[in-house]
Design brief:
Helix content: 25-40%
Number of helices: 5
Strand order of the largest sheet: 1-4
Number of strands: 4
Structural class: alpha+beta
Strand content: 5-15%
Largest sheet: 2 strands, parallel
Radius of gyration: 16 Å
Order of helices and strands: EEHEHEHHH
Shape: flat
Length: 106
């Protein structure tokens, strides 16, 4: 079902965050006296390929047709590792930022 739909990169690292966790964190920050920059992201750093596999597994999809590659192989010129350190946010917020592995667990 997924074959040929997208090429997923094995070397692009991201920290996905659930939109409801993010919204709750933003609302909490608006109501607080906190001022300054703050990274608010999920705690799990995953590649786009790993994320695709997690989504496929969660929804019972056949992932054997997923195409993977690397940014270098495609000649893309963009940052590959854009992990965010949300340690400060986790210490400041009551909102728990759940990881993608927890969110997609069965």
């Amino acid at each position: 079902m997924l074959a040929g739909r997208a090429t997923l990169f094995t070397d692009e690292l991201r920290c996905p965050v659930d939109v409801t966790d993010l919204a709750d964190a933003v609302l909490e920050l608006v109501a607080s006296s906190y001022a300054g920059l703050l990274n608010v992201a999920g705690p799990d750093a995953v590649s786009r390929a790993d994320l695709g596999l997690l989504v496929a597994e969660r929804f019972g999809l056949d992932a054997t047709g997923l195409t993977t590659t690397t940014g270098a192989a495609t000649g893309l010129s963009r940052p590959l590792d854009v992990r965010l350190d949300s340690t400060r946010a986790a210490g400041l917020l009551r909102t728990r930022l759940r990881g993608v592995r927890e969110l997609l667990a069965r």
